[in-house]
From TrEMBL:
Active site: C9 (nucleophile), R15, D126 (proton donor)
Protein name listed in UniProt: protein-tyrosine-phosphatase
Broad class of enzyme this protein falls into: hydrolase
One family name in Pfam for this protein: LMWPc
Enzyme Commission designation: 3.1.3.48
Domain of life: Bacteria
SUPFAM superfamilies named in the record: Phosphotyrosine protein phosphatases I
Reactions listed under catalytic activity: O-phospho-L-tyrosyl-[protein] + H2O = L-tyrosyl-[protein] + phosphate
Residues annotated as domain Phosphotyrosine protein phosphatase I: 3-152
Organism, scientific name: Oscillatoriales cyanobacterium SpSt-418
C-alpha cells in the first residue's frame, strides 16, 4: 500500500496543485513513484473542474516543474483515504478540521509549512489576488516544504517496513 498525501488549499488551482506537482517531481527524482502518491483538493467549490491557474503554471514551469490537474473539493471521505493531509494556511486547516468534529483525524492533518527547514513562514500565502512574484514565492516555499515532507515520509515508510520484519 502506498503512502498517500493530500495537499489542500482554498481553490485547488494555485497552491495545492503546485505542492502536488512539486512533490511528484521530487518523488520521481528519488525513484519512489508507487510508494508515495499525491493528490490535491480545495476546501471551496469555486473552481471545481478547472486546470491549475496559468500564473502558477508559469512560475512552476520556470523552476522546471510541469503542472497538471483538475480542481476538486475536499470531502470528509478524504480523511480515511489519505495518510497525511497538508493544509496550506490556517484557514484551510480550520476548514478541514470543521469537517472532523470529533477530532478523530487531527493527527493526520498538518500545516504544510511545518515541514519547511529553510523558511520561517508558518503559512503558504494565498497568491491569487497578487502579482507574479507571489507565485514564484509560493513555489520556492513549497520546494522547501516538499523536501522536508519527503524526508518525513521516507522515515515513516522505513518505520513501517521495520514493523513488518
Ligand atoms: P488557491 O488560490 O487556494 O491557492 O487555489 C485561490 C484560488 C482562488 C481563489 C482564492 C485563492 N478565489 O477566491 O477564487
Amino acid at each position: 500500500m502506498p503512502y498517500k498525501l493530500l495537499f489542500v488549499c482554498l481553490g485547488n488551482i494555485c497552491r495545492s496543485p503546485a505542492a502536488e506537482n512539486i512533490m511528484n517531481h521530487l518523488i520521481q527524482q528519488e525513484g519512489l513513484s508507487g510508494q508515495i502518491v499525491c493528490d490535491s483538493a480545495g476546501t471551496s467549490s469555486y473552481h471545481i473542474g478547472s486546470p491549475p491557474d496559468r500564473r502558477m503554471m508559469i512560475a512552476a514551469g520556470d523552476r522546471g516543474i510541469p503542472m497538471q490537474g483538475q480542481a476538486r473539493q475536499f470531502s470528509p471521505h478524504d480523511f480515511k483515504e489519505f495518510d497525511l493531509i497538508l493544509a496550506m494556511d490556517r484557514e484551510n486547516y480550520a476548514n478541514i478540521c470543521s469537517l472532523d468534529p470529533t477530532g478523530k483525524f487531527k493527527g493526520k492533518t498538518r500545516l504544510m509549512c511545518d515541514f519547511c527547514t529553510e523558511h520561517s513562514l508558518r503559512e503558504v500565502p494565498d497568491p491569487y489576488y497578487g502579482g507574479a512574484q507571489g507565485f514564484t514565492h509560493v513555489i520556492d516555499l513549497l520546494m522547501d516544504a516538499c523536501n522536508g515532507l519527503l524526508n518525513h515520509v521516507k522515515q515513516e515508510l522505513a518505520t513501517k517496513t521495520d514493523g513488518l520484519r
